[in-house]
Structure formats: structure tokens, C-alpha cells
Amino acid sequence: MLNMDDRQTALLALTLLVPAASIGIIAGLYIAPGGWGQTLSVLCQVWLLVFPIAWSVFVDREKLSLSLPKRQELLAGSIWGIFMFAVIVGIYSLFGQQWIDPVIAKEKSHQLGISSLNIYLTVEAYFVLVNSLIEEFTWRWFVCKKCQLLIPGTKAIFLSSLFFTIHHIFVIAAYSDWQAVLLGSLAVFTAGIIWSHSYLTYRSLWPSYISHAIADLALASIGWQILFN
Q1: Are residues 31 and 37 in contact, defined by beta-carbon separation less than 8 angstroms?
Q2: What ranges in 27-116 are assigned the alpha helix state H?
Q3: Are 50 and 128 in contact (CB under 8 A)?
Q4: Measured between alpha carbons, how far is 54 from 52 in angstroms, rounded to an integer?
Q5: Mean pLDDT of 109-137
Q6: How does DSSP classify residue 177?
Q7: pTM summary value
Q8: What tens digit of pLDDT does each residue of 191-228 get?
Q9: 8 A C-beta contact, residue 13 and residue 55
Q10: Which end of the chain has fewer CB atoms at under 10 Å, N or C?
Q11: What separation, in Å, do the N-terminal and C-terminal C-alpha atoms of the chain show?
């Protein structure tokens, strides 16, 4: 049985962490893109990484460790990643060109400092290889575990996926219309469910990280086509 202190502590941790993702996106994409908003966005990204580490070490008294991926984890992550890659590219081929305005996308990208192909490739390499790992660490390893303290069982998967989806709504809305926002949000929520389930199944971030990175690679390829093709 969980005591009230466990739930209150988990709720406090989520309250201090989850809103930071949306705050950073809103500041960087809507309020002051390219200015102080971008600085705040970077600080929020740092917070999303540093806070779970600090909380786990100093509050939960956990020891952080890293294990090498097992064959089954590599296989599961690759299968899910290839599936997500195909779905993302397929949806864009069917609907994306009508829902995403390349002019608006280019304007937003230039405001964020992405003005050349080399810069874009550097940024996307970070998102595919590094940011996907940070997101899995934050939203699966930390947030999903805290959600389990609030509502044990499979409901925690849906709650953590909802938290994961919220800030992505603001990202999608900055580049596309309401139809893409609805479909994209549903896709992110579904991916969050898959990744949370993978983490709870294997108790490892490798399956979700690998599939997340492959999915982000699909988004990077679409972004390249919109901005530079």
C-alpha cells in the first residue's frame, strides 16, 4: 500500500517538472522566438534533465545506473521504431502537404536560427540522438514512475502520456493548422503509451529510446523536405 506521503511527494515532483516543458515551448516559439524566449526555452530543457536527476539522488535516494542493451530490447525498439517511421512518413504523404504551410515553417525556423542546411542537420542530429534520450529519461523513467505512485496500474501509462503530449501540442500548432494538431497530438499520445509500456515491460529505456530516435529521424527527414527541398 502507498502512503499519502508517497503520493504527495510524487505530485510535488510532477508539479515542479511537467509545466516546464510547455513554458519553454511557449516562450521560445510564441512569445519571444530568437530572443529571451529562446534562452528560457533552453533553460527549461536543462531543467527537464537536471531536476529528475537531482530529485532522484537527493529526495528519493536512488542510485543512477546505466546498463548495456539486451538483444530483446534492441529488437523491440527497432521494430517499434520502424513501424513509427512508416506511419509518420505515410501520414505526411497523405495529409501533411495540405496541413503544413512551408512558408510559416521556414519563418519559424529562421527565427530559431536554423538558416542553413548544415545548421539544420546539426540540430536534428541532437534531437534524434540526444534529445530523444533525454525525453525518455524524463518522461518514462521519471514521470511514468511518479504517475504510478499517484495512480498505480495501467492508468499511470495514460497519465504520463498525457503529460508528454501537452507541450507537443504547442509545438505542432506553431507549424500547422488545427487538423494536424489533432492528428499529431493523438500520434504523440499513442507513442507515449507505447514507450511507457515498453519501459514498464523491460524496465529499461533502451527499447523506447531506440524507437523514439527512429521516429524523430522520420520527422527530421520531413522537416528537411519542407525547409530545403
Answers
A1: yes
A2: 36-58, 71-91, 97-99, 102-111
A3: no
A4: 6
A5: 93
A6: -
A7: 0.92
A8: 999 999 999 999 999 999 999 999 999 999 999 999 99
A9: yes
A10: N
A11: 57
